[in-house]
Specification:
Length: 704
């Protein structure tokens, strides 16, 4: 009998846990009951209804979201009414009103005037109302006092996700399952997740999505696929999101049956015009084209002796008369063992500044190589006064531990956006280049390579969600700090308890510096495993191209380590403004986080810290591992304070991270020691494996 009761009890307990478990699918839009009773009461007292004063789809979405959020947060459903339907007073209501209050800078901005007796959200457009609604919900989720006035407008016009999703459902550099887009089901079945995706994006102000990989298949331009993309665009539209398509430059040949794709050929131009017209029959508000051309084997105008501007301008011409734009990527580099990939994009594009059509934006990765964990800002930022430059960040963690390492990327985005380019004298930050204020760009764009996938929680690692969130918030306003975003996200996603929130956001802020320490300390870069880009392979010396190896970048030899980009060698430093050069050309005075990006230094070179290069490097590797162990310990102490499923999920991933931090440390120490011939600094323990052992670990990834 006792045994039976206990059995039943266990089932009940497990059941109640199962009920409570959170699979993360709601992201930061949780709307769980507010635990603070006093606050909850005042919210439900203040807002008994939501009043709509216009009838657009987007305003309806805003009103319904507010009602949904209030129901979840307070347990009570408010009425949703339109002003036309009702002569109800506006007291105890959230009123959505079209208008243009002072201080609202553009169509997507809004003003919220909130009190305990009701709130009015006013915006020039229904999109502004939607953003205002989400901003208000965020205030409630984070338990902001109800009396406030808040005006906000986005600083960048096009804030978009770039999906590297393929037609067959795979995702290039995606680590959270397969693509969220079900191309084989579309247009007949609309996966409900499309709506969740649209809500999540709208909630942080993302208003664009290019839906397919930049290594693009022409299939996306076939009529069959345009019907599918139209179905996606129809779902996105009420949420203020425009759809963009990545195009394959060779499409006139592969799809159109032409024998060239030369951008100056009249038939090719006519083909793109007709295709663009066809797209607009399906998607009247089409966002535009995203193009990777003459990069990593992709076709492009240079195949026909033409320039990037010739290619981009042809597409711009096809888009004339429509709203859409051409986003042309600057991620180009050629295989030259004696060159410096760092300079390649700058050198190819700089002579073209001023020759692009008004509809063209050139999209530049945050750093000059390729989304490495800590890159100096790309030297193109600040150097293109006549061509709008878009920022391309990577949200998916290609070089940042995929979905097993805890790395909150907010600080990385922030660091880049806040760096001074000195383009127009001091105080000319990268953020101001991108938001157009520095050079008066007519169009502005910030893009993030998406980390979304079919995993229940969208991003694999629960903290991957925070990177999507942080990207959106910074694309809206690059002056926000990574720390305030971390706190906000944690409150909305993980806990309403201040102590837990503080602890978690502190862990988030420490996570990236820790990752950098055990992988790429002191500005080392590009030493990851070949192809998969996971784990260390500093010994990689042979690959399809010299600039896909590791030795090309770290240049470790008996005489020292690092890539000399000063005037003595590649002189990439010269691409920056003189003030920036000054900041980085003296190893005695510079930020050590960028050291190996610009200098090749002897192993026993004395740094200003008093440590030699070798000792500093090794100390950082060892510290990195220790810090992961601390992260692990501190996370584990949160057991019982965070939803069980999320807690266990992160805990498991941290265990992998701990093991792999050691892998990075041992691999780099044992490999570099071959050149430095120096011992570990005193107090650091020898690894209990050999260089061959760690080399074997990497080999596993290439077994068939
Ligand atoms: C690199 C990725 C590759 C992408 C490329 C790009 O390894 O998969 O296609 O960037 O941005 O980071 O085009």
């Amino acid at each position: 009998m006792v045994r039976k009761t206990l059995g039943l009890l266990t089932v009940l307990i497990l059941w109640s846990f199962a009920l409570k478990a959170d699979d993360g699918s709601r992201l930061w839009l949780k709307y769980d009951l507010l635990e603070n009773q006093a606050y909850r009461k005042s919210v439900s007292k203040a807002f008994k209804k939501v009043i709509l004063t216009d009838n657009s789809e987007t305003s309806k979405v805003a009103a319904n979201e507010l009602a949904f959020a209030l129901k979840g947060l307070t347990g009570k459903s408010p009425l949703v009414v339109t002003a036309l339907q009702s002569d109800l007073s506006t007291s105890k209501a959230i009123v959505l009103r079209i208008g243009r209050p002072d201080g609202v800078e553009n169509e997507e901005g809004f003003e919220i005037i909130s009190s305990k007796k009701g709130t009015t959200i006013t915006a020039p457009s229904s999109k502004g109302l939607l953003y205002g609604a989400f901003a208000f919900i965020r205030k409630l989720q984070t338990q902001n006092p109800l009396e406030f006035t808040f005006t906000d407008s986005p600083k960048v016009q096009i804030r978009m996700l770039n999906h590297w999703d393929n037609a067959n459902g795979t995702v290039e550099r995606g680590y959270a399952g397969s693509s969220i887009w079900k191309w084989f089901e579309l247009p007949y079945r609309i996966d409900p997740r499309y709506i969740q995706y649209a809500r999540a994006n709208a909630s942080v102000g993302i208003n664009g999505a290019s839906i397919n990989n930049v290594n693009a298949s022409s299939r996306f331009l076939t009529t069959e696929y345009l019907e599918k993309i139209k179905a996606v665009a129809d779902v996105m539209r009420p949420y203020g999101i425009k759809v963009y398509i990545s195009v394959n430059f060779r499409s006139p040949r592969t799809l159109g049956g032409l024998d060239t794709s030369d951008p100056l050929d009249p038939e090719v131009r006519a083909w793109w015009k007709a295709k663009t017209e066809e797209i607009h029959r399906f998607i009247p508000d089409f966002g535009g084209y995203l193009v990777k051309a003459n990069s990593e084997g992709e076709p492009g105008p240079q195949d026909y002796g033409r320039t990037h501007a010739d290619g981009a301008n042809m597409l711009a011409d096809a888009l004339k008369g429509y709203e859409g734009v051409v986003i042309w990527r600057a991620f180009v580099y050629k295989a030259d063992p004696n060159g410096d990939r760092f300079k390649e994009a700058y050198n190819q594009f700089k002579p073209l500044d001023g020759t692009f059509d008004k509809k063209v934006i050139v999209q530049v990765k945050n750093g000059p190589i390729d989304f490495m964990p800590r890159e100096p800002f790309h030297p193109m930022f600040g150097a293109f006064p006549k061509t709008p430059l878009a920022m391309e960040f990577q949200i998916t963690q290609e070089y940042l531990g995929h979905s097993t390492h805890f790395t909150y990327l907010g600080p990385m985005y922030e660091e880049t956006l806040d760096t001074d380019t000195y383009a127009n004298g001091p105080g000319s930050t990268v953020g101001e280049v991108v938001d157009g204020s520095l050079h008066n760009y007519p169009v502005t764009v910030m893009a993030g390579v998406a980390n979304t996938g079919s995993d229940a929680n969208w991003t694999g690692h629960p903290f991957g969600q925070s990177n999507w969130y942080a990207f959106g918030r910074l694309a809206w306003d690059h002056t926000l700090t990574a720390e305030e975003i971390a706190t906000e996200w944690t409150k909305m996603t993980l806990s309403q308890d201040d102590e837990v929130v503080n602890k978690v956001s502190d862990l988030m802020m420490r996570s990236l510096p820790t990752y950098v320490k055990y992988t790429y300390p002191l500005g080392l870069h590009h030493m990851m495993g070949e192809g998969h880009h996971y784990g260390p392979q500093p010994w990689l010396a042979k690959s399809g191209r010299p600039d896909w190896t590791s030795v090309y970048y770290h240049r470790a030899a008996e005489d020292g380590i690092g890539f000399d980009r000063t005037g003595k060698m590649s002189d990439a430093l010269e691409l920056y403004a003189p003030e920036v050069q000054k900041k980085w050309n003296d190893p005695q005075k510079m930020d050590l986080n960028y050291l190996m990006w610009f200098h090749h230094l002897p192993w026993d070179y004395k740094l200003p810290s008093g440590q030699t290069v070798w000792n500093e490097l090794m100390t950082r590797y060892y510290e990195g591992v220790k810090e992961v162990e601390e992260l692990q310990k501190e996370w584990n102490s949160l057991g019982g304070k965070i939803d069980r499923e999320t807690f266990e999920n992160v805990k498991g991933r941290l265990a992998i991270q701990q093991k792999e931090a050691l892998w990075w440390r041992d691999a780099c120490y044992l490999y570099f020691k071959e050149f430095s011939k120096l011992p570990l600094p005193s107090g650091l323990q020898e690894p209990n494996r050999t260089l061959e052992d760690v080399k074997d670990l990497e080999k596993i990834y290439h077994l068939r």
